[in-house]
Design goal:
Length: 442
């Protein structure tokens, strides 16, 4: 029986058992529970912009065998990672000015050139107003969840999902982007190359691999001066009267999570997901047991938290929030929430990989993480758009990668410096090779 791909607005027509068979080996952002949550919430208010959320579902008869979530957006206000125009053309300028005020004149000069290029693209109809984004909503990951099938069928199913997305992009007259594809997703990367997608470096996620069985063994990976620093940060939080508790009952602490999340993310402007108390309740309700929070308490008062997502051998440090007031605000609560407590929890859960997110990479690298490249794969339904936009996008991501190259190096705090593994071999399309940006060795 042949495979058939359809585009659906929700997954309500499928049972939990059917979706569990499809998503059993997929990551947490492509799990049935995550999809159920996305179908149940007001997604637009969380991403701060208008979008249409859909799924490509590939079926054999009445049985689904693959699911690929995606969004269609032309919104000017949407979260910057989900906006082609903001991410590639505008948001980085304000960040550069904040980080490098001494280079203000140069940054404004470059920004003027970029603005002129953006105006040219709009005037000639190349278009930067939106895209079809293959991403699991509220994450930075793109993938296709596929049931266990023979390899040849798996490849056919993956190509069927990609073809269906290309049809949507043609209909919407928008570029198609697979967003946040992990460098280790070799089969998906190869399929996208074969379909003439351009590979663009997106960002490094900070990956902490855990070839140890206890927190003491983790600490023992580092030199003595580093261990003293880490132990001092742990001790200072404890001496400030802070204790850490893990809970999966997110509804009971949802108000505190909203307050602490806003206190942290609002320090960096408006470009972040909106997470009210109702969201945290929905996360606990739908994604449990894969979602939990480590909550920092001072007495009975929650003063910080980290939200963790776990499935199979992967644990994601996904969100963080804390108080900035008084003695507790001065204690190194962040380092406990962002590193030490998640490491302990990962080891308790048997996780071998702890994903720490793309921010604060220097602090994360010092504690053992290395950069793991995420790519965007982009395809244009119109040749003119590709000709106008791809040279700029190529250069933007090349510069971005060069600036983050040090994020891939092992921590100088580690006892032994070993040669990092080689980056994945370049991908080659079977017909026309995709344009790509090389990734450096880790």
């Amino acid at each position: 029986m042949d495979f058939m791909a359809r585009v659906l607005d929700s997954l309500d027509s499928f049972s939990d058992a059917q979706l569990d068979r499809v998503t059993a080996s997929a990551g947490v952002f492509f799990d049935r529970r995550w999809f159920r949550m996305i179908d149940a919430i007001d997604l637009e208010s969380l991403v701060r912009g208008h979008l249409t959320k859909r799924y490509v579902v590939v079926s054999r008869g009445a049985e689904p065998v693959a699911v690929c979530p995606f969004i269609v957006t032309r919104s000017d206000s949407i979260y910057f990672f989900y906006s082609l125009k903001k991410f590639f053309f505008t948001s980085w300028q304000a960040e550069l000015l904040r980080l490098n005020p001494e280079k203000a004149n140069f940054i404004r000069w470059v920004s003027g050139i970029v603005a002129a290029y953006l105006g040219f693209a709009r005037a000639t109809g190349a278009g930067t107003q939106g895209w079809v984004l293959a991403v699991s909503a509220l994450s930075h990951r793109g993938d296709v969840a596929i049931a266990t099938l023979p390899p040849a069928d798996t490849e056919r199913v993956r190509h069927a999902a990609i073809d269906a997305l290309k049809d949507v992009a043609k209909h919407e007259n928008l570029p198609l982007c697979f967003f946040g594809v992990e460098q280790g997703k070799a089969e998906l990367r190869q399929s996208l190359a074969e379909q003439h997608f351009a590979e663009l470096f997106l960002v490094h996620d900070n990956l902490l691999e855990l070839p140890v069985r206890s927190f003491a063994e983790y600490l023992d990976l580092f030199r003595s001066d580093a261990r003293r620093l880490f132990n001092r940060e742990i001790k200072q939080a404890r001496e400030a009267g802070v204790r850490f508790e893990t809970t999966r009952d997110l509804d009971s602490v949802s108000g505190s999570l909203e307050r602490l999340y806003d206190a942290t993310y609002s320090k960096y402007g408006e470009e972040h997901f909106h997470h009210p108390a109702s969201f945290w309740s929905a996360l606990g309700q739908h994604v449990a047991p894969h979602a939990e929070a480590i909550v920092a308490y001072h007495g009975r008062e929650p003063v910080g938290f980290s939200a963790l997502l776990h499935k199979n051998e992967d644990l994601y440090f996904w969100r963080v929030g804390r108080s900035y007031d008084g003695e507790v605000g001065e204690a190194p609560v962040y380092f406990n929430l962002a590193f030490y407590e998640p490491v302990k929890r990962a080891l308790e859960l048997g996780a071998k990989r702890l994903w720490l997110g793309s921010g604060a990479w220097e602090a994360k690298r010092r504690r053992g993480a290395t950069g793991h490249a995420l790519f965007s794969y982009i395809w244009f339904p119109r040749r003119w758009s590709r000709w106008v936009l791809m040279p700029y996008l190529d250069n933007f991501t090349r510069i971005s990668h060069e600036q983050l190259a040090t994020a891939t190096q092992p921590s100088a705090y580690l006892k032994a410096r070993v040669d990092p593994p080689h980056a994945p071999a370049p991908l080659h399309a079977t017909t026309q090779p995709a344009r790509r940006v090389r990734i450096a060795s880790r």
